Amino acid sequence: MGALPVYRWRLAPDGYATRRQLRARGLRPGGQDVAAQLERPRRRRPPLVAYLYRVDLAKPVRPMTDARRAALAKANRARRTCPQCHADAGYVIPTSLGTCVPCAYPEGVCDGIAA
């Protein structure tokens, strides 16, 4: 197997797309290997690399089923539930705090910060 073709940033030929570009078209790589890569040069650092897939081999995105929708809802609910007070915070709990803001700052330290 040979090396991947490398293109400079914004100079890839038609027929190739990144994962995000495929997703925007309603497609997915569908098990195909990376076909090429883009490199964006940077000063004093290694280049940024983006992998490209062939659009003609891409497959349609699988439809959302009721079971997948329920699993996603359950996972998002778990991310919003405070492990200390077990309340739904209404937002995703920051991993830096590990709990909701009222539990992380019970003495009201953050009340004067945003004022």
What does this structure look like?
- The chain has helices at 19-24, 66-80, 101-104, and strands spanning 6-8, 16-17, 27-28, 36-42, 45-54, 59-60.
- It has 115 residues and is α+β, with helices and mostly antiparallel strands.
- The strands form two sheets. A four-stranded mixed β-sheet has the order 1-4-5-2. A two-stranded antiparallel ribbon has the order 3-6.
- A hairpin with a 2-residue loop joins strand 4 (36-42) and strand 5.
- The longest helix is centred in the middle third of the chain and has 15 residues, at 66-80.
- The model has no long low-confidence stretch (mean pLDDT 90).
Quickly describe the structure.
The protein is built from 3 helices and 6 strands, in the order ββαββββαα. The protein has helices at 19-24, 66-80, 101-104, and strands at residues 6-8, 16-17, 27-28, 36-42, 45-54, 59-60.
